Amino acid sequence: MRVVRGEELLRAYSPGDGADKVFCSACGGHVFSQDPTDPERKGVRLGAIDGDPGIRPSFHQYVEYAATWEPIPDDGLPRFEQGRHT
Question: Please, what CATH class does the domain formed by 1-50 belong to?
Answer without folding.
Answer: mainly beta
